[in-house]
Fold this protein.
Amino acid sequence: MAYNLLTTTGINSLISSYKSSETTKQLTTLTTRKTKYQDMVSKWSTVSSSLTPLKSVLDQLKVTGSSSAFIASKSATSSNTGFVAVSATADAPVGTFSLRVNQLSKNDSVVSETLPSITTNSVTAGVHTLKFQSGDNVANVDVTFGGSETNLTIMQKIRDAVNSDSTASSFMSASVFSPSTAQSKLTFTAKNSGFTNRLRINEGMSEDDALKSIGLTSGVLTNRYKNSDDTKAGFLFGTNLVGVLTEDGTNNLLNSKFQYNGISIQKDSNVVSDVASGLTLTLKAAMQTSDTDVNVAVASDTSGTRTKIDNFISKFNSVYTSVKNQMYSSTIGRGVFTGDPNAQGLLNALYKGATAKVGVPDGNLNSLSQLGISFNTDSGLTVSDSGQLNNSISQKMSQVEAVFNSENGVAARLSTSVNLYEGSSGSVYSAISSYNSNITSISSKVTSVQTRIDKQAEGLRKQYTDLQSRLVSILALQDMFTGAASAASTVIGV
C-alpha cells in the first residue's frame, strides 16, 4: 500500500533518495571541477619538481672562465705507485715526466742519554726556562725542579711541561720510555717534517743543567750531533758526527730528495704540490740504484664533460616530457594541459632554447645538432651520434663550451626561460597557488551546499514523520469504526 512509504524504513528511503538526487544536481559540477583542479595541481607539481634540477644544471653549464664546467679534468698515472703516487687537477700540464726518489722526509727527533731511572740527579733547584723552536714556531717552557729529582723524574717533568704547553705541543711532542729494565730515556719529536721544521732547543741561550744532566749538552743541541749509539744523546737524523759532515739545508736527512726530469729537488714534506701546477706527488719510498725511474703521465679526461652533457639532456627531458605528455599522448589522448597557455609557453621556450643556433664565429660549432644531439617533439633531446659528440668534446672543447655558455648559448637561453617558470616567483608556482585557491573555495561551497541539503532533508523527514503520526491516528480510527460496524451487524442479525 502507498502508506508503506510512511513507515520508518520508507521515510529513510525517501530521505536518502532526496539527498542523492540533490547531491547529484547541486554538487556534481563542483566536485568535478575540484577534481580537475586537483589533477592540475598534481601535474604542475611534477613539472615544478623537474624544473629545479634543470635550473641547477643550467646554472653550472652557463658559468664561464676558470670555473667553467667545460674545463677538462686531468688524470695522472704513476708507473710505480710503491715509490710515487700522483694526482692532478684541471690545471695540471698534459705530458709525461720522470721521477726518482732518493730520500723521504722525516720528522726531526732528539733523544737524551739512556740513564738509570732511580739515580738521583742533582740539578739547580728552581724554575728552568727551556726554549723550543720548529720552523717559525717558538715556545718558552718553564719547568720547576726541587734539586734532588731522579733521572726519571727530571725527564717526566720536562715531558709534562712540554706537552701541557699549548704553544709547544702544537709543533712538537715529548715522551719518556724505558729502553731496558730500570733505564729511562727522553725524546722530543717535531710534528712537521723537513729540515725547515727541525727542532732547535735553547738556541742562543746559556746551557741548561737539567738538559745537560740527561746528555743534551749545548754541544749536542747546537751542532745537531747524531747519537753515536742507542744509549747516547743526540739527533736520530743528525749528520754532524764531529769532523765528518756539516748539516745544512742541503746536507741533511730530514728533507725529501728527488729528481724531477733529472733536476734535483728538496722539500720538507713527502707530499709535494708545488713542482708543477695542479700536480700533487706523494713520495712513498726511497729508491735503490737498481730501481728504474718512475714515469708519470698526465692526460686530459673528457669523460666528465660528457657526463655533464648527458645529465643536462636527462634533466631537460624530464621537464619537457612532464609537460608534453599532459598535452597529448597516444595513451591518454588530450591531457589536462591541452590549451593551457603556461604549458604551451614552457614547451615553446624549451624547444627554442634547445634548437636555436648560437652566435659564434663562422665555421665553429653553433648548435646542439652539430654536436650530435637531436631534438624530438615527443621525447625531447637525445644523443643521436655519440661518436660525433665525443669527438667534439675531445677535439673542439672550446667550441662545445661556447655552444653552452656563450652569451646566447643553450644554457644561458634556457636558464633565462626556466627562471620565468621555476621558483616561488615563477608562473608554475603561481598556477599551483591559483588552483589551490580554487580548490579551497570549491571545498567551502561543497560544505555549504551539503549542509543546506542535509538541513532540507531533515525538514522533509519531520514532515514525513508528522504524516506518519497522522496516518497512525487515521488507521486507529479506521480500526475502531470497522469494529463498531461489525458489532452492529451481529446485533441486527440476532
Summary: The mean pLDDT is 89. Residues 107-235 form a domain with the Immunoglobulin-like fold (CATH 2.60.40).
